[in-house]
Amino acid sequence: MLSSKTCSDNPLLEQKSLPKFSSIEPSHLQPAVETLLASMSKKFAALESNLNPASASYSDILPELERIREPISYAWGVAGHLNGVKNGDELRKAYEESQPKVIKAFTEFKQSRVLYDSMKNVLESEKAHLSQEQVRALESSVHAMQLGGVGLDGEEKERFNEIKQRLAELSTTFSNNVLDATKMFSLEITDPADVGGVPESAKKMWAAAAEGDSEKGPWKITLDGPSYISAMHHLGVREHREKLYRAFVTRASEGSGDKNNVPLISEILSLKLEMSKLIGFNNYAEQSLSSKMADDVAAVDEMSSFMKEKALPAAVRELQEITDFTRANGGEEYSEAHIPKLMPWDTTYWSERLKENKFSITEEELRPYFALPKVLDGMFGLANRIFGINIEAANGEAEVWNDDVTFYKVFDEESGRHIASFFLDPYSRPENKRGGAWMDVCIGKSAATNRDIPVAYLTCNGSPPIEDTPSLMTFREVETLFHEFGHGLQHMLTNVEIGDVAGISGVEWDAVELPSQFMENWCYDKKTVYGFAKHYETGEPLKDKDFEKLKLQRTYGAGMMTMRQLYFGQLDMELHARYDPAGGESIFDVQKRVADVYSAHMPPIEGDRFLCAFNHIFGGGYAAGYYSYKWAEILSADAFGAFEDVGLDNEEGVKSVGRKFRKTVLGYGGGKPPSEVFKEFRGREPSSEALLRHCGLG
């Protein structure tokens, strides 16, 4: 047990409640890690010495393991979170110095033979008397130990452990390089003519970055999400868009000095292949899929080929339509004589113009109806309507890492009980926050550690408020918020009390996107949208005709978007399943080869290095798993189909199906196989019909 003096000296050791974010400094990390690892090592040694594989019971093992691991998991989770949202040189240094020690400690857990043998014996002798959640937790732990090298000895074990350490180091460096390279580039515009036709919100954002005036300039465009996307959608000067695009797809590559990720990718792929072979797999993809819904690489290939057959003809038609529109409206600059084929910095811009022309509405015209505070109210209202929960702001009841962050409590409507909480960090901060959007665990539910209130982090990189104007979101940003909220709901509404399979823990990776993508569907439900789509100044609701246009826009570009996702997924799978890092092909040769199949209609430009910023697979947890987005999208669309079947205007029907979704998909977490969970909710196996219908590809 840690002394009260030790805890009071270091906020990372104060773990009875929520993290003390206002007090945590980078200097606290290393001493906290050393203290917690020493304590954990002592307790784990005692557990090992007391375990007898022949007689150990479930209660002797997993609950004890949860209690032993929880303090370092809590502190290290906080450190990892801050590394993503409040990154800085001092924190990076402390994190990188502590990381090898943490990995070494958890590797020792996974390679304990007495622990492994005890779990195996419990599964053989007690399985009939255990709950399904207990069996899932044990099976998951046994499999994790097999993947963690428990069966290795001698030099093989030593080499495996070296690889694990190096891969963790490379992953962290990769992400830091992407963040740094993103910050390294900016484009300054001084001529007001160059921003003609650009929405006021974008001009204000760019002017604020340059400390200029939104009408007179200067304007600074960065590679941070909201800034870059606004430029590619609205900046009329082709040369500027080209410069921005080339900078974006070459981030952290050969021209980025010591932030070059090319050698890191090669080393990551080589080490993953070597590691997988050490534990009996032919490649890393086989290892990754051993703990996913998809049976094997062939199953992923089959899904991708099936979706490609549906999406590619649509993508080709869509690109031709954009090209024809551009030729007709772009003037001599966009004539076939000048540009034989549209380039990526053309298609994004002109696709937006075509969409505006088709639907007579612009993204900018919709923004005033999507003010973040109103969107949150509507989203929380939906959660009450379908899941029977109330969400209340509780700012001031938790310390936060930035003034933009808000804190909420979740209550069960029927009982009034406080059942969960979450932090929301909604805006981009390019100076110290990594790009993208994600949900992560702050505190997980666990009876063993007396944690009954799960807490989530919801992180987005949306458009920030400007002066007195609230955050006015693009519709895509609204969908992203709903997406991350869906992840958070699965974490927060779990009914499972075994930490290893509560919430998102233990959920197969290709099913974990089901709740998140499911929630996006509600952005096209009239009652939901009219719960928040009100003009931020006048309170006027979104016009019916504009909502109908919004729904029609849903399938706009669906073919090209689907092919883009399939391209990323198959490139990821090719690199981890069939690519030989020691062979004659480079990673960019592989990219071109996969693009010839999945992006032939719009091939990457010469010198494209987007792989160098592909954080999902090289800096995150999606290696040989990016296909999961499309796999889970089939599940999520079909799940939403259950609500469509009863009628979205049928309040009692929607409520009934929503409570069933809460009980099954959200409630069971990792406590049941996702195929069983889906079948219990839907009453049958999943079908791709709903997804194809939603995308207009059926």
Automatic annotation (TrEMBL):
Binds 1 zinc ion. Pfam families: Peptidase_M3 (PF01432), TOP_N (PF19310). It comes from the Eukaryota. The keyword Zinc applies. GO terms for molecular function: metal ion binding; metalloendopeptidase activity. GO terms for biological process: peptide metabolic process; proteolysis. GO terms for cellular component: cytosol. Its EC number is 3.4.24.70. The keyword Coiled coil does not apply. It catalyses: Hydrolysis of oligopeptides, with broad specificity. Gly or Ala commonly occur as P1 or P1' residues, but more distant residues are also important, as is shown by the fact that Z-Gly-Pro-Gly-|-Gly-Pro-Ala is cleaved, but not Z-(Gly)(5). Residues 33-157 form the Oligopeptidase A N-terminal domain. Its cofactor is Zn(2+). Keywords: Hydrolase, Metal-binding, Metalloprotease, Protease, Zinc. Residues 232-696 form the Peptidase M3A/M3B catalytic domain. Belongs to the peptidase M3 family. PANTHER family: LD37516P, PROTEASE M3 THIMET OLIGOPEPTIDASE-RELATED. This is oligopeptidase A. It comes from Triparma laevis f. longispina.
